[in-house]
Amino acid sequence: MNKAGFVYHKDTYNAYDAQRIVFEASKYKSEITFADGNKRANAKSIIGLLSMKFLKGDEYSVYAEGPDSKKAAEGIAAFVETL
């Protein structure tokens, strides 16, 4: 299992952002999970991502497990920071 982190920089978070994350996460074979303490969400599930309600300035962790887990964790964390 590999782990990466990111800080959410955007003022708002909506379904379009969640959809973009799902599309990006779907490029990887690994299982990818976002976590922020008590909440966890599958990065390939738009409903799960919407439930995360990312807030500007908050820190989140990305966990990935699978054949491309290191690349997946780092790639998704970097992608979300560019939103």
Short description, anyone?
The protein contains 3 helices and 4 strands, in the order E-H-E-E-H-E-H.
What would the principal axes of the Cα set say about the shape? globular
CATH superfamily, called what? HPr-like
Q: Could you tell me the number of beta strands?
A: 4
How many structural domains can be distinguished in the coordinates?
1
Structure in words:
With 83 residues, this protein is an alpha+beta fold. The chain has a single domain, classed as HPr-like (Histidine-containing Protein, Chain: A, 2-Layer Sandwich). The chain is 37% helix and 25% strand. It contains three helices and four strands, in the order βαββαβα. The chain has helices at 15-25, 46-52, 69-81, and strands spanning 2-7, 31-35, 40-42, 59-65. Strands 1-4-2-3 form a four-stranded antiparallel sheet. Strand 2 (31-35) and strand 3 (40-42) form a beta hairpin. Helix 1 packs across helix 2. The protein is globular and about 35 Å long.
Give descriptors for this structure.
alpha+beta; globular; 3 helices; four-stranded antiparallel β-sheet; Histidine-containing Protein, Chain: A; 83 residues; single chain
Give the topology.
Layout: E1 2-7, H1 15-25, E2 31-35, E3 40-42, H2 46-52, E4 59-65, H3 69-81
Helix pairs in contact: 1-2
